[in-house]
Design goal:
The complex is a heterodimer of chains A (224) and B (374). By secondary structure, chain A is of the alpha+beta class. Chain A has six helices and seven strands; from the N terminus they run E-E-E-E-H-H-H-H-H-E-E-H-E. Chain B is 32% helix and 12% strand. In chain B, helix 2 links the parallel strand 1 and strand 2. The chains are: A alpha+beta (224), B alpha/beta (374).
Chain lengths: 224, 374
């Protein structure tokens, strides 16, 4: 690894590792990944994979970037049709040699960062790529209106009736509670919910969660 | 944090996932793997009202698991490569009319079978029938004194005497017939039961099961059970005192790794469910017990009362849900309850994915007990 420059006044650090002719270069600024770049890549697929990994690293701590960027890149690459989803779990290790190569380079960065104390003292990684402040800062009515608008389009696109799903509330953790109309077959509900959640995540660009009204325990001798 | 413990004959605080390296390798290659372990119940009904019971939070649309359904399920599990079935989950399986048949059927088709129970209906006759089919039988008992037993377990105090006698009987039957079944007692500990730690450890020493395990209480993401994780640390001295009551034939073990973690997870991705799924006593197939309630319907995969398990497992829907939990759209630290059944498996697999944990070299090492219950 080459810790090529440390500029204390800007708290900038540059890191570079290599493997099989490819290089991963990262610049950290104020402990966040400011830029990430692969070089020596071969072929369109490898370039697309490496680019996706780099994009998933920027803006996050080195710890978060090295631990989870490959997973985020997998999602993006499948969505864009560059890589195919395997039959089982879409782990980076299951997605082909290009991502395996990226993972090796990320692993090298992580190992060397530990060795020179850039990750020293870190406990567990609790950095969350969750809801943005832009979303959480919105008023409740504005959020509900936006989600209702997306729900309307979602149901229309699928040919479902407009009252199949209704928004009950958005709770204080921004979780969206919905209920189904009685016309929706029971067997259809689970997938429909997951599809709706996926739809609004894509449209609104936030990690929103969709739930159904909780069911109370039917065992009368238990306390809740 | 890797979740592995040092090799021990009976691993009560850790995971045995590393003993299934062929399945881990297949998972890494992106193949569809059968679960190693399935935890389920034969009913959501229960004759107890335990103060700590997570089943209070797990209600979903109930269906009845008949003998035909459970026989088909066992056949399907054996066919696809499931290795162990435990009857724990969200109901008291021993009160199901199909309990004994289910244990025997599972055993006959080559599955390792186990049960967690309040033990109330496991009188001698039933024990004689079922113990030969079981790898382990674990009695849930969170008090060592009669009146407190009644309070904590939500039943008449007199039930305590019957359960104690049933434990004596199962220990005696095991010894007499030289059975391999492991008999354990389990205390789900909320900090307010601290006064029962030592009485229970002493009770176990008198009743002579193979072990007493003391574990934390799991809560959901909203803390609805009211578990005060910060208070466990006040109990450490008492817990060590309980551990010290172990002898050559009776082990008192504490799930330190969970009790000490204050309810938090070191990992964000949930990799465990493909290796260990849970099913509700309603027949519902879900990734885990934390997602049984109707509230989490988006994770509900199918129901064995309506469809064959082998078809549910092979469905795109099953793998869509598993991928959701393993993907970047899910963060177990934020979006999940505390310290689930899959926790140690999750910990290990996450560490393995990050290159922090390695698969151990098991050449020449003896298998731990209960290897099919990871």
């Amino acid at each position: 690894m080459n810790v090529s420059s440390i500029l204390p006044h800007e708290q900038m650090v540059s890191l570079e590792v290599g493997h099989h002719g490819r290089t991963l270069s990262i610049t950290l600024k104020s402990e966040k990944v400011d830029s990430a770049r692969f070089s020596g890549t071969i072929g369109d697929v490898e370039k697309a994979v490496m680019s996706s990994v780099c994009k998933a690293m920027v803006g996050y701590s080195l710890r978060e970037a090295t631990e989870h960027s490959a997973v985020y890149a997998v999602k993006a690459l499948i969505s864009n049709g560059i890589l195919r989803r395997p039959p089982g779990i879409a782990l980076p290790s299951a997605m082909g040699q290009e991502l395996a190569l990226a993972d090796i380079l990320i692993g090298k960065i992580r190992q060397e960062a530990w060795a020179v104390g850039l990750l020293a003292g870190d406990g567990w990684n609790f950095e969350d790529r969750g809801l943005s402040q832009q979303w959480t800062g919105k008023g409740g009515k504005e959020k509900v209106a936006e989600i209702r608008a997306q729900l309307k389009k979602f149901l229309l696109d699928r040919g479902d009736s407009a009252d199949s799903i209704s928004i009950s509330e958005i709770d204080r953790y921004d979780r969206i509670n919905v209920h189904f109309s009685e016309t929706v077959p029971i067997s259809k509900k689970p997938k429909m919910l997951m599809d709706f959640e996926s739809y609004i995540r894509d449209c609104i660009g936030e990690r929103l969660e969709v739930f159904v009204t909780e069911m109370k325990d039917m065992n009368r001798i238990r306390r809740l | 944090m890797t979740g592995m413990t040092d090799h021990a004959e009976l691993i009560l605080d850790g995971t045995k996932i590393a003993w299934h390296q062929d399945r881990i390798a297949a998972w890494e290659r992106g193949e569809r793997i059968a679960p190693i372990t399935i935890d389920m119940a034969l009913t959501r009904a229960c004759n107890y009202g335990c103060h700590f019971c997570y089943a209070m939070l797990q209600e979903n649309e109930r269906q009845s698991i008949t003998k035909e359904i459970i026989y088909n399920f066992m056949d399907d599990c054996a066919e696809i490569g499931v290795k162990g079935i435990s009857f724990v989950s969200d109901g008291e399986s021993t009160i199901s009319p199909v309990f004994v048949d289910a244990c025997k059927k599972g055993h006959d088709v080559g599955l390792s079978m186990a049960c967690g129970t309040n033990g109330f209906v496991l009188t001698r006759r039933k024990l004689e029938e079922v113990l030969p089919s079981l790898t382990y039988l674990r009695i849930n008992i969170s008090a060592g004194e009669k009146d407190r037993y009644g309070e904590i377990m939500g039943v008449k105090p007199d039930y305590f005497d019957r359960v104690c006698q049933n434990i004596r009987d199962m220990v005696e039957i095991k010894k007499r017939n030289n059975l391999s079944v492991t008999i354990g007692m389990q205390m789900v500990l909320m900090p307010e039961y601290a006064d029962q730690i030592l009485p229970l450890a002493r009770l176990g020493k008198e009743l002579r099961p193979d072990y007493l395990i003391i574990k934390h209480c799991s809560d959901n993401e909203d803390g609805d059970l009211g578990v005060e994780y910060g208070k466990y640390s006040q109990l450490y001295d008492t817990l060590r005192e309980a551990e010290a009551m172990s002898d050559d034939e009776y082990k008192v073990a504490i799930k330190w790794s969970k009790i000490g973690s204050t309810g938090q997870r070191s990992y964000q991705r949930c990799y465990g469910p493909p290796f260990m799924i849970q099913m509700s006593g309603s027949g519902l197939v879900a990734p885990c017990g934390m997602l049984f309630n109707e509230r989490y319907k988006k994770f509900h995969i199918g129901n064995i009362c309506e469809e064959r398990f082998r078809d549910i497992w092979a469905s795109d829907r099953y793998w869509e849900v598993m991928n959701y939990l393993a993907g970047p759209g899910f963060n177990a630290q934020k979006m999940c309850g505390s310290l689930c059944l899959q926790h140690k498996v999750n910990e290990f697999l996450d560490g393995y994915q990050k290159g922090v944990a390695q698969l151990p070299n098991l050449m020449g090492k003896s298998e731990p007990q209960h290897i099919n219950f990871i």
